[in-house]
Design goal:
The protein has helices at about 20-30, 30-45, 65-80, 110-120, 125-135, 145-155, 155-165, 180-190, 195-205, 205-210, 215-220, 225-235, 275-280, 285-290, 300-335, 335-340, 350-360, 365-370, 400-415, 425-435, 440-450, 455-460; strands spanning about 50, 100-105, 250-255, 260-265, 265-270, 280, 375, 380-385, 390-395, 400. It is of the alpha+beta class and about 450 residues long. The strands form 4 sheets. Strands 5-4-7-8 form a 4-stranded mixed β-sheet, with helices on one face. A two-stranded antiparallel sheet has the order 1-6. A hairpin with a 5-residue loop joins strand 9 (about 390-395) and strand 10. Helix 6 packs across helix 7, helix 14 (about 285-290) packs across helix 15 (about 300-335) and helix 20 packs across helix 21. The radius of gyration is 31 Å and the shape is extended.
């Protein structure tokens, strides 16, 4: 069998992800604090970069970027080739730098260990108690078995149980429990409210209470509906996760808004919070050095040229991130004006694609630019993605955002007669009267997402 060789020419297209492109995409996705951390790292590594102390150069307005450059940048970002950056200076604005406020709170284990050191009577009790505390989860429940702990410490089971009872008397009440029932019993006992009916309900009827089957509980225990309702109300005051009020042991990092919308003299103003990052500039000494080749050797020059390119890419990537976020929020402000004026109830359905089409960018670019970012508004601080939401059709051909529907449901429930709570079907009818057409099943879904109990659980008998 003979072999034949041939030479063919084939043209193909493939995505080339350069290091600069990866950097641009990464910076676009970074929230403010992570961006500032990244800039600090670059300032340490790149001698061409520095923060300008006083920048008085005229800046092009952020609200009106060159349309052609913007479109080309977005196309290149999605296409994967090198980015052609505009040659004009990056815009900057003076504003106070955001600081990374971090708070360290006491953990549940630390709190209980401090209590137990004051309570334990012997070294052995202290050792066993600290071991038990170390086996509590973040909610205060004991997840290790008594036999298992006895074997680990090489002590009898009764000593583990005796110390465990002591741990269960510590604050907050309910810690050291091995089940939800035991947790509630400990709290009821600590409050002096552990009557026989309360004990029986906790031990055998928690699911029935959750499902609103008060009649069944009353029949089984020989109690009146009013008595069962009072027991349910009391149990609802107890904490099923007594340890959650304490820290989990991780650092708490407070939210730093990435963009703010403020009302000034009746008009909304958009401020992108990247002040420190936007003050990045090039070091004049090294720029002069590069302008005079004779003053440095070839290796040094190549190093400085590499760092210069990196610095320019970083500065332009940050500026492009700033403009992209600004343009997105401009659209949000225009499309969600009622939300900014009056609150969540007036939020309208809006998708990433709709915003992307309006600003002439790819949907994935908008997705990256809004991920993990927060916006400060006159109504409070929200995730930027909160302003994008699903919706339901209304009778007039418009739509209502899911969040606004949930607020309406909460309002209806707050005003209902507790002896005759509104069913999901009735809630759907009330929404229909507001021009919002939804099914009973959709109402149930939104009600559950809003953590509103079903009508059976909301019903009062007295």
């Amino acid at each position: 069998m003979g072999m034949a060789f041939s030479l063919t020419l084939e043209q193909t297209q493939k995505l080339v992800m350069t290091q600069e492109l990866r950097q641009a995409i990464s910076i676009l996705q970074l929230p403010t604090q992570e961006l500032l951390d990244y800039v600090e790292e670059e300032l340490e590594e790149n001698p061409l970069l520095e923060l300008s102390e006083d920048d008085t150069r005229p800046d092009p307005p952020v609200a009106e970027p060159e349309a052609e450059a913007e479109t080309e940048w977005a196309d290149r970002l999605e296409g994967g080739s090198d980015l052609p950056w505009p040659s004009g200076p990056a815009s900057r604005e003076e504003a106070p730098a955001w600081e990374n406020f971090i708070s360290r709170e006491t953990t549940l284990a630390e709190h209980l260990a401090g209590e137990w050191r004051l309570t334990a009577r012997t070294r052995e009790e202290l050792r066993i108690g600290l071991f038990i505390i170390g086996n509590l989860d973040e909610h205060g429940y004991l997840r290790s078995g008594v036999t298992e702990m006895a074997q680990a410490l090489n002590v009898p089971r009764f000593r583990i149980l005796r110390v465990l009872r002591g741990i269960q008397r510590l604050d907050p009440p309910g810690v050291g429990a091995r089940s939800l029932e035991e947790c509630l019993l400990i709290q009821a006992r600590a409050l002096g409210r552990l009557s026989p009916p309360v004990r029986r309900v906790i031990k055998g009827y928690l699911r029935d209470l959750a499902e609103g089957k008060l009649t069944r509980v009353a029949s089984d225990l020989g109690l009146s509906l009013e008595e069962v309702q009072a027991i349910r109300d009391f149990i609802r005051t107890l904490d099923p996760k007594p340890g959650r009020r304490y820290a989990s042991g991780e650092e708490i990092q407070y939210v730093v808004p990435d963009v703010s919308v403020e009302k000034v003299e009746g008009e909304y103003v958009i401020l992108v919070n990247d002040a420190a990052a936007s003050r990045l500039t090039l070091n004049n000494y090294y720029r002069r050095l590069l302008a005079h080749p004779a003053e440095c050797d070839p290796n040094t020059r190549r190093y400085l040229e590499h760092k210069l390119n990196s610095a320019l890419w970083l500065i332009r990537s940050i500026e492009q991130r700033r403009r992209t976020v600004y343009r997105i929020v401009e659209v949000l402000l225009r499309r969600q004006r009622a939300f900014f004026d009056y609150g969540v109830r007036y939020l309208q359905p809006l998708t990433l694609r709709q915003v992307a089409e309006e600003i002439g960018m790819h949907e994935s670019t908008v997705s990256r630019a809004t991920a993990n970012k927060f916006i400060q508004t006159p109504q409070g601080v929200f995730p930027l993605r909160f302003l994008f939401g699903s919706g339901v059709e209304s009778a007039g051909g418009t739509a209502a955002a899911a969040e606004s529907v949930k607020r309406l449901l909460a309002d209806f429930v707050a005003k209902e007669d507790p002896r005759h709570p509104l069913s999901d079907q009735k809630l759907a009818e009330l929404l229909g009267q507001r021009g919002i057409s939804v099914s009973r099943r959709t109402v149930a879904k939104y009600r559950e997402e809003a953590r509103i109990p079903c009508s059976a659980s909301r019903r009062r008998f007295a």
